[in-house]
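Let's practice the habit of predicting before peeking. Look at the sequence and jot down your guess about where helices and strands might fall. Then scroll down.
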Amino acid sequence: MADMNPLTPWRRLLALPNENRAKILIMAFLVSAFCTLLVSGATVILRPVQLANQAAEQQARLESLVAGIPGMSGLLKQTGGSLRTVVIDLARGRAAADVTPETLAAALEESANWTSLSPADDLAGLGSRPNYAQIYLLRDTDGDISLAILPISGAGYNGLIDAILALKADMNTIAGLAISNQSETPGLGARIAEPAWLSQFRGIRLADDSGKLRFAVARGAAGNDYEVDGITGATRTSNAITRMVQFWLGPKGYGPLIAAIKRREF
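Done guessing? Here is the structure:
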């Protein structure tokens, strides 16, 4: 009777000489498969930890940004120091109906939740933008929005630039700007992350009385209330910041939301 022991083929394999080609290929395949399963399992197990760390890092940047805004620390204490988060449907300028902060990452893995941008609309050089964005709002004791914190991004000289833009209650004055990710040239474009350069954004107006968006990073010294000083030797990075801010405050970015806030509809 044939040996029905399931271990028999394995024992026969192990009994083969180590230089046997079939044994080498089979063992290599088994080791590779085991390593693949191990890596995949580790990725699944560690994913929640990675997401938690990312959330903690973003929260730390938000706290740092808010702490640097003159008078904001006192306002936070007065209102309990709580920033409320909400996911925005960018096209509608309203809170998303079916997407929450917890489900946002999964939603943005679907191509249907992204909008392709025409060259004329794509000031920030993104190619496409998400249909949803997570923002942070601070409301005063009357329930009015006193601060809006908006994540923005755009193509820089060497790669993507991510930032956090804080707007005051009028939605036309910058309360602060923080760079959360950049890969610009050290000593040149990378200076956009320096506190001394970022400090000049506080109090800068975005649009004139007619509503025309005029914010810009100047080529050299700022020449009006809508400009900040440019960075010497980093014209492309300076222009990238201009385009990034203008895009996200425009109709394809947070424009509909800002209009709704100004109408006191949000």
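How did you do? The mean pLDDT is 84.
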